[in-house]
Amino acid sequence: MLNTAVLKAGARFKSAVCDTQVMVIKAPAGEHLLSCGGSAMIAASSTPPADAKLDPNAAGETLIGKRYVNADESVELLCTKGGKGSLALNGTPLEVKQAKQLPSSD
To answer: Are 74 and 28 contacting, i.e. CB atoms less than 8 angstroms apart?
Structure first.
């Protein structure tokens, strides 16, 4: 089931298979498949399908307050509610954004 969507800053999505909820901070142009736990994410106001199940291969855990990015940081998501699924964009897993190293004050 490929539910691609245009991702826009400020848009909110929730997982169809766990408690994860995210808000888009930065997004690339065009349509993309945003997934969590192996299933396409749905609009925050939508009701998840009754038969949706967490894919054990996509179970990683999302952490509230963390930002998730892809390799080139063209997409950035803020986790607003944690859950058991891991986030992916177009099938590529997203990673927790690392804090930038500040210059030393010596």
So the answer is: yes
Residue 74 and residue 49 in contact, taking contact as beta carbons nearer than 8 Å: no
Beta strands, E only, the chain: 5-6, 12-14, 21-26, 31-32, 34-36, 39-40, 42-43, 59-62, 67-69, 76-81, 83-85, 87-89, 92-93, 95-96
Strand partners, 92: 89
User: How do residues 44-90 score in pLDDT, each as one tens digit?
Assistant: 888 888 888 888 888 889 999 999 999 999 999 999 999 999 999 99
Please state the pTM of the whole predicted model. Answer: 0.86
Read off the tokens for 66.
């963390």
In this structure, are strands 87-89 and 34-36 parallel, antiparallel, or unpaired?
A: antiparallel
- Token duo for residue 12: 């909110």
